[in-house]
């Protein structure tokens, strides 16, 4: 529970500090993420929500980028001895990196970014007869992402973002695993300074 509160505080600080810089965007993402099916079936397909804030000076060649994403999946696995096992996997990440957003004439804003992410994965197993158990671990990973958004009106952003995470290394229930993923989402947000 404490880690979730920490992530919430970080997200609020990002949204408060970002607009103090001359240029940037605060874009929320909702979408889907796929983990390795061989490792995580049947909880490999996640719903994801998060925010990316990029900010910097008006003339900076690249901007600072930071944000938070959370994803989850749950399903039931049939077991001959235990009956149904409810499995829930949640993944939370805080990331920090650099971002390049092009602002050509017009409304189109292509972008790329990348950096490092601190990732926490938590898996819960629950059975009707024996109750539940859970395990969690934390790892560092590297991410890259890119996409395009359109500036509608002076500040509103809408677009698409594709993202890849790699290099995570976790131990859950004494098994070595990872939560590397491929992700695609819809971007909704706002940018500053206001477009003319």
Give a quick set of tags describing it.
single chain; 196 residues; mainly beta; Porin; two-stranded antiparallel sheet; 2 helices; 67% strand
| Overall domain count | 1
Unreliable runs: none
Please give the largest β-sheet: 8 strands, antiparallel, barrel
Strand pairing plus helix content: what structural class?
mainly beta
Supply the CATH architecture. Answer: Beta Barrel
Q: How far is it from the N-terminal to the C-terminal residue, by CA?
A: 44 Å
| CATH topology call | Porin
Morphology: elongated
Described by its quaternary structure, the protein is single chain
Helix fraction, binned, reads 10-25%
H/E element sequence = HEHEEEEEEEEE
How many runs of DSSP E, i.e. beta strands? 10
Strand order of the largest sheet: 1-2-3-4-5-6-7-10
Helical run tally: 2
Beta content:
over 45%
> What is Rg?
19 Å
Main CATH class: Mainly Beta
Mean residue pLDDT? 89
Short description:
The protein is mostly beta strands. The protein contains 2 helices and 10 strands; from the N terminus they run H-E-H-E-E-E-E-E-E-E-E-E. The radius of gyration is 19 Å and the shape is elongated.
Q: Secondary structure elements and their pairing?
A:
Elements: H1 2-17, E1 23-35, H2 37-40, E2 45-56, E3 63-79, E4 83-101, E5 108-127, E6 131-152, E7 156-166, E8 170-172, E9 175-177, E10 181-192
Antiparallel strand pairs: 1-2, 1-10, 2-3, 3-4, 4-5, 5-6, 6-7, 7-10, 8-9
